[in-house]
Amino acid sequence: xxxxxxxxxxxxxxxxxxxxxxxxxxxxxxxxxxxxxxxxxxxxxxxxxxxxxxxxxxxxxxxxxxxxxxxxxxxxxxxxxxxxxxxxxxxxxxxxxxxxxxxxxxxxxxxxxxxxxxxxxxxxxxxxxxxxxxxxxxxxxxxxxxxxxxxxxxxxxxxxxxxxxxxxxxxxxxxxxxxxxxxxxxxxxxxxxxxxxxxxxxxxxxxxxxxxxxxxxxxxxxxxxxxxxxxxxxxxxx
Length: 238
Ligand SMILES: C[S@@+](CC[C@H](N)C(=O)[O-])C[C@H]1O[C@@H](n2cnc3c(N)ncnc32)[C@H](O)[C@@H]1O
Description:
Blueprint (H helix, E strand, L loop, with lengths): L7 H7 L6 H14 L2 H17 L6 H7 L9 H13 L4 E5 L5 H12 L4 E6 L2 H14 L5 E5 L2 H4 L7 E6 L6 H8 L3 E9 L10 H8 L5 E6 L5 E6 L3
Parallel strand pairs: 1-2, 1-4, 2-3, 4-5
Antiparallel strand pairs: 5-7, 6-7
The protein binds S-adenosylmethionine (SAM).
The site of S-adenosylmethionine has 24 residues, from helix 4, helix 6 and strand 2.
């Protein structure tokens, strides 16, 4: 098949948007900047701990504000895995809890574009991150596919229209279950839900993992030993 006589769909199917120069450029820049988390993350964590020690309640908004310069992204390996999963199931509607600067969103948008188009709906509590993620999508050429909703994902994702093909959970850990419960009625059978940081937040995420692995809630699920533990769940229906 030559580019000269192929249709637009043929040409999309022949390659990967991850090889597109614009997409690669933004991803490389963001992954490089994220290395600074080595210094920024401990500072933010200590700041949040001091707030709690002083007896003040640390709201999710305060935690996100303190993390406004911290990427805490998925790894490039996880990104590639997300892309492959999304491509395998032909995902056209993807929802993400916790967008940060948009690293994971870029891998998801690349997969949706290569499947022939659709939508990626991200969510971010911190306004400056939502703005920068939106700008990063524009720089990569994904503005037509991606919307990053500002505010608490439990509310902003409640209005997403199904059927949803794929969900990535990567926001604050106490909300994985509430966000999942908002989205479950909109999942199509065979939809994939991926949840990050199962190992670091083993205790906080135990209720989530039990919900997914019990076999009683419409999911079949296993924890993959990729990066910090990726819970891989398939919605099989109740
Ligand atoms: C681990 S980071 C996400 C990293 C991103 N998925 C990536 O790979 O680049 C978690 C993000 O979730 C956001 N977040 C936390 N709670 C949220 C909520 N209730 N609604 C929307 N975003 C939230 C935080 O502000 C933070 O930027």
